[in-house]
Design goal:
With 211 residues, the chain is α+β, with helices and mostly antiparallel strands. The protein contains six helices and seven strands. The protein starts with a helix and ends in a 12-residue tail after the last helix.
Length: 211
């Protein structure tokens, strides 16, 4: 993890402290201090992310209530021949499972299937939970503290239309376990676990066990 990512995660922690403090504190002096903490977080995020400071400040000011980690889902799609569906990320050039943030009101399974369809054009069916991965432990390519829900999926059909989020992927391909492309951060664990789950060797879902 480079210094920019480290600073971004520290800013995210400051944002959480600020949001939680403003949610629960009733002391005006404490609230002023928490707003100052939020401003410091905004300055760090603006510097590391290249966004204008007013935009970042406005975004943070709209986050009300108790702040929690983000939740995202990843579709680990393996076909009957034992090949896994991966996308080549536009931001890094490395290969990863299709996935992204859930929408409010959808289940984890529906969100994973939607993200896969948007990024690859494949309709898939989630069939089991592989694991829940903490972004901090696996140093994934995100700017916030994220829980990644990894679901094993089976392919159903490839649609004729182009993926709606094709700009996020340079390429899409199927790969057998013995000939995997260069994988993005975290996927050196996620992809082998997906194949173990597909073979029936993964007896229980992965989680961090309090690390």
């Amino acid at each position: 993890m480079d210094i920019s990512q480290e600073l971004t995660l520290l800013a995210d922690e400051l944002r959480a402290i600020s949001a939680n403090g403003l949610c629960f504190s009733r002391n005006p002096y404490d609230q002023a201090n928490y707003r100052q903490v939020r401003q410091v977080a905004a300055k760090i995020l603006a510097l590391t992310g290249g966004q204008p400071l007013p935009e970042v400040e406005q975004s943070l000011s709209q986050m009300l209530g108790h702040y929690t980690p983000m939740v995202m889902g990843d579709a680990l799609v393996i076909n009957e021949r034992g090949a896994i569906l991966l996308i080549q990320r536009a931001d890094s050039g490395l290969w990863a499972a299709p996935g992204g943030a859930f929408d409010v009101g959808e289940t984890a399974a529906a969100g994973v299937a939607r993200e896969c369809l948007e990024e690859t054009g494949w309709l898939v069916e989630p069939i089991r939970l592989i694991g829940i991965y903490d972004s901090r432990l696996f140093k994934t390519r995100v700017h916030h503290h994220v829980y990644h829900i990894s679901l094993l999926c089976r392919p159903v059909a490839q649609t004729e239309s182009l993926p709606s989020h094709a700009s996020e992927a340079l390429d899409v391909g199927w790969f057998v376990e013995s000939r995997l492309p260069p994988l993005d951060r975290g996927h050196d664990v996620w992809v082998p676990n997906a194949f173990r789950a597909w073979r029936g060797d993964l007896t229980e879902a992965y989680f961090d066990r309090g690390r």
